[in-house]
Amino acid sequence: RFRISDIDKRVRTSCGYCGVGCQMDLWVRNNQVVKVRGAGADVLPNRGRLCVKGRFGYQFLGSRERLRVPLIRKKGTFCEVSWEEALDYTAQKLAEIRDESGPDSLAGLASARCTNEENYIFQKFFRAAVGTNSVDHCARLCHAPTVAGLVRAFGSGAMTNPIEDLAGADCILVTGANVSETHPVTATYIRNARDRGAQIIVIDPRKIDLIQGSTLWLRPKSGTDVAWINGLIHIILEEGLADREFIRTRTDNFVALEEAVKPFTPRVVEDISGISEKQLRQAARLYGAASKSSIVFAMGITQHITGTDNVLSLANLAMVCGQVGRASTGVNPLRGQNNVQGACDMGGLPNVFPGYQHVSDPEIRLKFETAWGRAPLAAKTGLTVMEMMNSASEGRVRGMMIMGENPMLSDPNLNHVEASLKALDFLVVQDIFMTETSALADVILPAAAFAEKEGSFTNTGRRVLRVRKAVEPPGESRADWQILTEISTRMGYPMAYKNSSQIMKEIASLTPIYGGISYERLEDENLQWPCPSQEHPGTPFLHKEQFSRGKGLFHPVDYIPPAERPDKEYPFVLSTGRLLYHYHTATMTRRSEALNDFAPSAYGEINGEDLDRLGAGEGDLLKVTSRRGEIVVPARKSDRVAPGVLFIPFHFHESPVNRLTNDALDPASKIPELKVSACRVELV
Ligand code: SF4
C-alpha cells in the first residue's frame, strides 16, 4: 500500500532470517519499517529475489512485546531496573563466580542471529575478560560436522562455491536439505539450473517440494547416509566414472577409500538404506558423468551421531569425480541462520579464535594476547553447548551468558536443558523478546534487532554483507556489542569502541581470512572470504588449483547405525525440522502476522497407513512419547513421510518436540542426533 513518495527513506541491508543473506531495501516511515523489497537484479547473492520471510516477516520489529528495559529477577519476579543497576549487578555476579570458582565456571552462548562484530566482542569478552574458551553457539546443533569434516578433507569448513553458482551446474545432488522451505532463494537457483536442463537428484527421507520437477528422488531410511554415499562411490569406480587424473594429482589416501567402499555393493546398500540398485546406479551415473556437478546439503546430513562421517563421505564423492575447485561444482553446506557462518568465523566456538585460528597454538595465542593486552589467554579448548548443559547440571558451570539464543526450545532433550539452566547460580540473557530461555534468567538485557543497528553478517556462501540501521531500537534497548563492552569494562577489562566499523577494523587486523574486509570496501564491493588484503578481490570458489590444506584427503568411512532405532516399545522414527513460514524458535516469525497466519501451530506429519492403524484421522490429537518425554500434537496426514516415520517442526513452544529428541552426540563434532529418535505414537 505504500508508494515511494509516502516514505521517509529506504535503507539497504541484509535479511535477518536465513543464511542466504538476501540484500533488501527497508522502506521506513515514522521510524517504522513499512515495506520490504529485494535489492536490484544485479545485486548478489539474491538478484532481487526474496522469500516470504524476508519480504513479509518484519512486523516483529514493532511488536508491543519487544523488551524495552533491563529486568532483574527479585524475589522470583522480574522488575524493571536502570541500565546502570542491571550492568553493575551482572558484572558483579559474573566476577564473583569467576573469582570464587575459576574462569571455567562461566560459559557463554554467542549468537548466529547477531552481527559479526557482536560475536567478535562476545568471544573476546569470554576469552580476555573472563579467561575461558567456553564459548559456543547453535552452530553446534546444525553445521559443526560440516566444519569438522570439510576442514579435515579440504582444509576449509565452508561452502566451496557461492549460492548463485548453482544456476550454472549440470547436475545438483541435494541431500538432507529441504531447500525450498529453509533456504527458498537458493531453491530458485536450483530451479534455474533445472530449467536450463540440469539433472536434479534429491536424496531425502521426506518427499520435499524440490522433488517436483527433479530428475530422480531416492528415499533412504533416516541415518543411513554413509551407506548410500559409499554405494554411489562403489558404482562410480566400478563403471569407470571416476576422475583418475584429479585423484592422482589433487588428492591423498585414495587406496584406503577404494578398500572402504568395496563392501558397499548395491545389494548391501539396499539392505541398509532401502534404496534400490536401479535408482542408486541412475544417481551415480548422473552425478559421475556430468561436467559440473554440485552437492548441496544441510541438517539432514549433519544432525546425526555420524554427522562428521556423513560430511566426509560427501567430500569423498566430490573428489572421486573431480567436482571441486571449479565454478558450479563443489560441496555446499547450506548454513541455517542469518549469521551462523559469521558467528563461526568470529570464533564463537570453544576451540578457535576468529578465523579458525586454534587456541592451542602458542603463536596464535601470543598474537591475540598482544593485541588484546591480556595474558595468558586460556590454551585449553572450552565446552560445547551440550557439555555446558551437562556441566551446569553437575555444578561445574555456575554462571552463563546467552546472547540471542533460545536453547529452551532449540536444544535436544529439553527436560535436561531446563534442569541444567535452573541449576545455575546466575543466568544473564540478552534478547529482543521474552523467550522460554530468558524466562529462566536472573537478568534480561533488551537488545536491538537487525534493522536497528550497524554491522555485518556473513552468508552461507562466505559473502560478507553490511547490516544497516534503518530504525531506532525500542525503549532503552541497545546493540549487543554495546551491552557487552559495558559489562566487560565493569569486570576490569575495559573495552571501548566508537562504532561497529572500528570493531571490523580490529577483526581484519587479527583474522587473515577477513584481512581485506572493511566497511569502506563493502559499500561497493561484494567480498567473499578468504580476502586476505585490501587489494585482494575475495574468493568466489575455493580449492581452485590446490585445496586449502594442500591435497584433498580421502577418509575411509564405515556405516554406523543411529544411536536409537525403532523397537517394540518405541516403533516410530521421529524426525524434526523447519517450515517455510518460521525461523528457528519462531520468536520473530510468530510475531509477524503475515507469516504466523499460514503456520500458527505445531503438528505431527504422519503417513496415512499409520493413521489408519492407530484408528485416527486428520487433526486428531496424538500423544508422542520417547525415552525422554512426551508431547501432544494434532495429526497431519501426509505421504511426505514414509510409514513408520513421524515429522514434527521444532518451532512451537506449545508442543516442544525437543522434549523428545535424543542428545546422543557425534564424537567428532559433538552435534546431537536431532534427526533420528525412537518414539511411540498413540491416539489421545
Ligand atoms: Fe531472507 Fe533467507 Fe528468505 Fe532470503 S531466502 S529473504 S535471506 S529468509
Summarize the structure.
GO terms for molecular function: 2 iron, 2 sulfur cluster binding; 4 iron, 4 sulfur cluster binding; formate dehydrogenase (NAD+) activity; metal ion binding; molybdopterin cofactor binding; NADH dehydrogenase activity. This protein has 23 helices and 28 strands.
Describe this structure in words.
By secondary structure, this protein is of the alpha/beta class. The protein has four domains: 4-62, ADC-like domains (N-terminal domain of TfIIb); 71-140 and 338-457 and 475-498, 3-Layer(aba) Sandwich (Rossmann fold), CATH 3.40.50.740; 144-334, Dimethylsulfoxide Reductase, domain 2 (3-Layer(aba) Sandwich); 572-683, Barwin-like endoglucanases. Helix content is 31%, strand content 18%. It has a seven-stranded mixed beta sheet with strand order 5-4-18-17-16-6-7, with helices on both faces. Helix 3 packs parallel to helix 19, helix 7 (225-238) packs antiparallel against helix 10 and helix 16 (385-393) packs across helix 18. It is globular and about 70 Å long. The mean pLDDT is 96. The chain binds iron/sulfur cluster. Iron/sulfur cluster binds at residues 15, 17-18, 20-22, 46, 50-51, 53-54, 183-185. Iron/sulfur cluster is lined by residues 15, 17-18, 20-22, 46, 50-51, 53-54, 183-185.
